[in-house]
Amino acid sequence: MKKLFKIQYDKVIDKLRANIATVKPYFENMQKASISLLLKLTLIVVIVFSVIWLGKFAWKHLADQDIFLVSPTTFSFDTPDWATDEFIHEINNIHGLKNKYNIFEKDLTKRIVVAYESSPLISKVNYVERELPNKLKMKFELRRPVAIIKRKRKKHLVDKDCVRIPGDFYKYPEEGDEPIYIISRKSVKVPEYGEKWKDKSIEDGINLLNYLKHNKIDKLLKIVSIDVSKIEGRRKDNKIGVELWTKNGAKIKWGFSPSSGQVSELSNYEKLQNLLSVAMEEGADLGNMEYVDVRWKTPLAKRTRVR
């Protein structure tokens, strides 16, 4: 029995050895093919990374050439006629900019926008675009004075957005114009240059001035001041809101802003029509008028006494 089992065992072993011998060349070929494929893949990876590295090196070397450097000191702008030499110099030397930039720098345009919008002379940067090889194309809006805020014997220049701006860089009033004052007696903190006045009455005064300028009334009637010191009151307290004064000394009782919530308050358009109706009858300069009250449906007016 043992001999029979041994014979069968030997047959199985011989068969396995025969099978192994048969498939061994196949496995050897597969191993060789795998090694060859792995070597090829490794070579491809090495080539790809070499190309990428060489490309980055070549690009960096090319990008670092002086031809791709842009300097803010060489910027030139189309400035308006009202811009002074000091204003132009300040715009050409914005604080926070480096001496040179590479045109391919990451977030370059964003950094330029941040630097220019931090200037109190600039209200908004519309866009900054790269132009190869070494130019930046940009457009921004400049702040321009529209009035002087007068409070506590001190004067502060302000633009149409009620933002305080430095007077050293402007000539105000401009040639041929008269200054316009916003009269305020309210005690509020004076903002830094480039910051907005946090005073509702001053803001209402500037908004009214913008409206008058838009309709060219400021020059027609020679408005010289807008008194907003009484704007916080109510009519029942004998307050009349905003008062306008002309160069000839006529007082215009304008009232409160449309957003003040005053009952039966006329719109700015209705008040303007009232004012123009009086001006057409008495003369555009209101030279013979002591005051004009445009707060009512029918305007009131009083002539100066002739001595």
Kindly describe this structure.
The chain has 307 residues and is α/β, with parallel strands linked by helices. It contains six helices and twelve strands. The longest helix is centred in the first third of the chain and has 62 residues. The chain is elongated, with a radius of gyration of 40 Å.
Strands in their spatial order, largest beta sheet = 6-5-7-8-9-10-11-12
Shape descriptor: elongated
Give a short account of the largest sheet.
Answer: 8 strands, mixed
Poorly predicted runs are: none
Task: Examine the coordinates and then state which fold CATH places here, giving the name of the CATH topology of the largest domain.
Answer: Rossmann fold
CATH hierarchy, class of the largest domain:
Alpha Beta
CATH architecture of the largest domain: 3-Layer(aba) Sandwich
Q: Any idea how many domains?
A: 3
What's the helix-strand series? Answer: HEHEHEEEEEHHEEEHEE
Structural class: alpha/beta
Oligomer: single chain
User: Can you give the mean pLDDT?
Assistant: 86
Number of strands: 12
Radius of gyration: 40 Å
Distance between the termini: 157 Å
